[in-house]
């Protein structure tokens, strides 16, 4: 099944959700609960993150993706990182993806493990052709405000173009809180002849700690309306959470109105977030 069917994308953006495999070894029950909350919302796909860092969920990405596909009849995208990988470990990952009937993969570099000098797979662009040649539908990450290690916006676009030229057929963005950054980025992509569909990753802020962590991790700009909300609800976590979800809903509706190819909600495994976002998009549309 095509993730981005051109005729459908022309009439409405795709809607998708990101989840991470529940921590702990193969916690299938929690995965089923999360999937059971998301699948009835009718997403075009659900993506499942990958942790190479020994976080306890390395192997469960594909397990969770398979559960979602088989038990909830929902298309999945499994994430896969390559920093520190070798040709034989990637070959084993490909076998595992196939064994789990996964057809769509988001190819990422991931974090470079301390003390490791990447050799065979330095960048995501080195992983993409291996997966595409193996028959997967391959996506890649895109950074509307530039990757945290990449200062020059022009170079950011050049690196993205390399990933598309290497075989990435769809792009999922890093979170951003100001849609204007995305609109300018989309123009730069078009100028650079990057035509792969770009789905916009939106993460609602739920707490001050979470937003601080995200901003320092990925370098996203905090617009003043968010800073004002953080100040207003400093001592009222429930209202701050509600304000964060409402802000994300407004971003998503604005992106749909501006013709985004896809809307991707970082659900953080909270089905209520996905539900609120889906309702806002459907009500507006
Ligand atoms: P790349 O595209 O390889 O880029 C990494 C850096 O190298 C960038 O600064 C880039 O500008 C630079 N670069 C690229 N090509 C070249 C070149 N030819 N020469 C010099 N420099 C170059 N991480 C996880 O661990 N698990 C996940 O499941 C996960 N999911 C994600 C999903 C999305 C949608 C996004 C946006 C990120 C995700 N990440 C995940 C985080 C990601 O692994 C990090 O952002 C990582 O630092 C970069 O990954 P990448 O695939 O974009 O790398």
TrEMBL record:
GO cellular component: cytosol
Metabolic or biological pathway, per its Swiss-Prot or TrEMBL entry: One-carbon metabolism; tetrahydrofolate interconversion
Protein keywords: FAD, Flavoprotein, Oxidoreductase
InterPro entries: FAD-linked_oxidoreductase-like, Mehydrof_redctse-like
Pfam families named in the record: MTHFR (PF02219)
Catalytic activity, reaction form: (6S)-5-methyl-5,6,7,8-tetrahydrofolate + NAD(+) = (6R)-5,10-methylene-5,6,7,8-tetrahydrofolate + NADH + H(+)
Cofactor: FAD
Top-level division of the source organism's lineage: Bacteria
Record-level GO BP terms: methionine biosynthetic process; tetrahydrofolate interconversion
GO molecular function, one term: FAD binding
SUPFAM superfamilies, alphabetized: FAD-linked oxidoreductase
PANTHER family: METHYLENETETRAHYDROFOLATE REDUCTASE, METHYLENETETRAHYDROFOLATE REDUCTASE (NADPH)
Similarity-based family: Belongs to the methylenetetrahydrofolate reductase family.
Name by which UniProt lists this protein: Methylenetetrahydrofolate reductase
């Amino acid at each position: 099944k095509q993730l981005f069917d051109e005729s459908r994308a022309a009439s409405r953006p795709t809607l998708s959700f990101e989840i991470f495999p529940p921590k702990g070894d193969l916690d299938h029950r929690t995965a089923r609960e999360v999937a059971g909350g998301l699948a009835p919302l009718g997403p075009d796909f659900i993506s499942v993150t990958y942790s190479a860092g020994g976080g306890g969920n390395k192997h469960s990405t594909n397990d969770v993706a398979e559960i979602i596909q088989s038990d909830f009849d929902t298309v999945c995208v499994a994430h896969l990182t390559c920093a520190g990988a070798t040709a034989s470990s990637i070959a084993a990952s490909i076998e595992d993806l196939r064994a789990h009937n996964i057809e769509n993969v988001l190819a990422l570099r991931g974090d470079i493990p301390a003390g490791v000098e990447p050799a065979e797979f330095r960048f995501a662009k080195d992983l993409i052709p291996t997966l595409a040649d193996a028959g997967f539908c391959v996506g890649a990450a895109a950074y509307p405000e530039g990757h945290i290690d990449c200062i020059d916006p022009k170079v950011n676009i050049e690196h993205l173009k390399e990933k598309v030229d290497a075989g990435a057929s769809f792009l999922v963005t890093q979170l951003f809180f100001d849609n204007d950054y995305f609109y300018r980025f989309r123009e730069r992509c078009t100028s650079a002849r990057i035509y792969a569909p770009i789905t916009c990753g939106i993460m609602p802020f739920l707490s001050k700690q979470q937003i601080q962590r995200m901003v320092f991790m990925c370098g996203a700009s905090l617009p003043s309306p968010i800073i004002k909300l953080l100040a207003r609800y400093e001592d009222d976590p429930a209202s701050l959470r509600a304000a964060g979800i409402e802000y994300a809903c407004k971003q998503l509706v604005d992106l749909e109105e501006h013709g985004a190819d896809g809307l991707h909600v970082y659900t953080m495994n909270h089905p209520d977030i996905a539900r609120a976002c889906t309702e806002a998009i459907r009500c507006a549309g």
